[in-house]
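Why should sequence recovery work at all? Because a backbone constrains its sequence more than one might expect. Tight turns favour small or flexible residues, buried strands favour hydrophobic ones, and helices have their own preferences. The token representation captures these environments compactly. In the example below, the structure is given first.
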């Protein structure tokens, strides 16, 4: 019998021949009619060898009896038999273990009844089962690894990689649990906001690797010092959060004091003994159930006050306490509007030649006419202008307004054409690559001689990045303007750089001038600063002069110029003219615009 593939099943013959197991077809009496290539290769027989035989003829006597007494009756009754273990004797006479399955197909139409027999090599079946089991185990292991990986990813998402503490997301994930404990056993939820003092100095001096090791050590100390019920998290940088429920405010602040004491213990870092201090803000949950974000915000307000009060301490948030961050943002917005809407004012403080007693120039000092707080001195807004970047437009306005006034006075009063105008530059302005171009254009617009403009830069700003500062100063000097080192004596100037900087004068800081006549040390410092200035060919200027005794001592030391309330407070342009008249230096100048 040949396999009739039929037009409808063009691939049946190939499927039959290439099947992974042996297929045999016998007539209803059990005589073999055909076998597929798989069985022929496995058994070693040719198809002609098999035709006419019964399948049990290929078995040893024991299996023949089994087939005749079990399989044939089963086929007659049930029509099928499944996976009977037998041996098949191959053409070479060797027994081949196999699993035999068979099914009886009754006659249908013109097709006679037949029996389909499947022979599966027991060895290959065992290999298949082994592979199947291995595949199953691999799948189970893969699932286990996937679950483990997911668990680890979940842990990493909620924990800080450096310290192993909860991160912000991890803290938020425990929000419900933490808030649920607020009233447990009469306790109140509290947040302790911990921020290291001067951590940036460690990073800058010892490197970020050392800074990371410090953070790890600090995290371990906070974790060890906190109670077992506490939740400890690292928010960012050197900021940590401790959340717990306390029976009273005193219990919460005692925890803060304990943290401070633990952190103060010295630790060894890069061979150096480092003493760590921190500031802590404490906030207690109110009865009306604050959110965790609100608690953290209030703890941050208290932390801000702890740092402003000198650091290395804790502060408890007061319910009516304003948020300095919100106030600062509001003030920055008002300042931005003030710059564009003309709310700034320039006041001028005379600079007096101590030899002649006449005014040689003025220093421009900015004021802000605040809509509700009145006229504000620079100490109220320059710091936030510097931090926010507003110092650039603010500084540009002060420079332009000073040069505008200088141009006006020069046109109306030739006798003031030698008056020099000093304008302060901030550290951010000094690092602005457009600074020299901005100054050059301002001078051109106002037609003012560059030599009448003196730009003052603090010693600290110069020494933050002396190489960059030197490049900026050289660009400015090329314009022909004068340059001064302001607040001299408060920074850490290198004499090497001081010689390199193309400056014209040193302004001795007012803190030393205040001690003249009172402190011999301050007098010695002032005298040394004056001698140093003269030694390198610079003018010596004293600022903050308030008494006649200070004037006399400065004259005796050979100081060149001075300014301060002894001569005049900072004056608006309208009041400067009367002062100049009284000073008998520049009479007849018209009123300013």
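From this structural description, the recovered sequence reads:
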């Amino acid at each position: 019998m040949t396999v009739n593939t039929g037009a409808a099943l063009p691939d049946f013959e190939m499927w039959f021949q290439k099947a992974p197991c042996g297929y045999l077809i016998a007539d209803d009496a059990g005589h073999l009619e055909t076998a597929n290539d798989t069985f022929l290769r496995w058994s070693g027989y040719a198809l002609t060898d098999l035709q006419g035989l019964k399948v049990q003829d290929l078995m040893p006597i024991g299996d023949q009896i089994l087939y005749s007494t079990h399989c044939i009756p089963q086929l007659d009754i049930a029509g099928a038999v499944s996976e009977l273990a037998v041996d098949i004797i191959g053409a070479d006479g060797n027994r081949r273990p196999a699993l035999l399955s068979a099914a009886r197909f009754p006659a249908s139409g013109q097709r006679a009844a037949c029996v389909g027999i499947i022979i599966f090599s027991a060895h290959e079946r065992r290999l298949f089962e082994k592979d199947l089991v291995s595949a199953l185990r691999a799948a189970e292991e893969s699932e286990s690894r996937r679950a483990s990986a997911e668990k680890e990813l979940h842990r990493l998402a909620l924990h800080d990689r450096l310290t192993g503490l909860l991160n912000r997301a991890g803290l938020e994930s425990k929000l419900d649990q933490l808030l649920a404990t607020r009233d447990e056993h009469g306790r109140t939820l509290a947040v302790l906001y911990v921020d290291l003092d001067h951590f940036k100095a460690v990073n800058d001096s010892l490197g970020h690797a050392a800074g990371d090791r410090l953070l790890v050590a600090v995290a371990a100390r906070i974790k060890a010092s906190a109670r077992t019920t506490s939740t400890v998290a690292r928010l960012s940088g050197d900021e940590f959060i401790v959340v717990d429920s306390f029976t009273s405010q005193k219990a919460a602040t005692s925890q803060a004091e304990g943290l401070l004491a633990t952190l103060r213990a010295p630790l060894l870092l890069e061979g150096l003994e480092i003493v760590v201090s921190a500031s802590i803000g404490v906030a207690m949950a109110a009865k009306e159930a604050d959110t965790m974000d609100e608690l953290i915000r209030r703890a941050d307000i208290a932390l801000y006050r702890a740092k402003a009060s000198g650091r290395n301490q804790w502060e408890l948030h007061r319910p009516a306490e304003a948020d300095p961050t919100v106030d600062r943002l509001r003030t920055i917005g008002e300042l931005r509007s003030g710059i564009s809407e003309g709310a700034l004012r320039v006041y001028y403080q005379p600079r007096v030649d101590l030899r002649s007693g006449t005014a040689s120039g003025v220093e421009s000092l900015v004021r802000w006419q605040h809509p509700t707080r009145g006229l504000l001195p620079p100490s109220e807004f320059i710091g936030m202008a510097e931090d926010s970047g507003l110092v650039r437009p603010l500084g540009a306005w002060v420079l332009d307004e000073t040069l505008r006034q200088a141009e006006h006075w020069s046109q109306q009063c030739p006798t003031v054409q030698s008056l020099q105008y000093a304008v302060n530059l901030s550290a951010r302005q000094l690092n602005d690559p457009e600074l020299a171009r901005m100054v050059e254009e301002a001078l051109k617009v106002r037609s003012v001689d560059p030599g009448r403009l003196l730009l003052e830069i603090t010693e600290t700003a110069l020494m933050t990045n002396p190489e960059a500062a030197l490049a900026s100063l050289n660009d400015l000097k090329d314009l022909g303007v004068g340059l001064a080192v302001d607040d001299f004596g408060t920074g850490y100037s290198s004499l090497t750089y001081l010689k390199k900087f193309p400056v014209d004068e040193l302004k001795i800081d007012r803190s030393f001038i205040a001690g003249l006549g009172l402190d011999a040390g301050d007098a010695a410092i002032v005298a040394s600063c004056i001698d140093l200035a003269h030694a390198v060919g610079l003018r010596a200027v004293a600022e903050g002069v308030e008494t006649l005794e200070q004037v006399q001592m400065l004259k005796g030391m050979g100081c060149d110029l001075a300014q301060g309330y002894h001569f005049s407070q900072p004056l608006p342009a309208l009041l400067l003219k009367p002062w100049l008249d009284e000073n008998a230096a520049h009479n007849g100048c018209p009123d300013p615009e």
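A few observations help interpret the result. Confidence is low (pLDDT under 50) at residues 1-10, 585-592.
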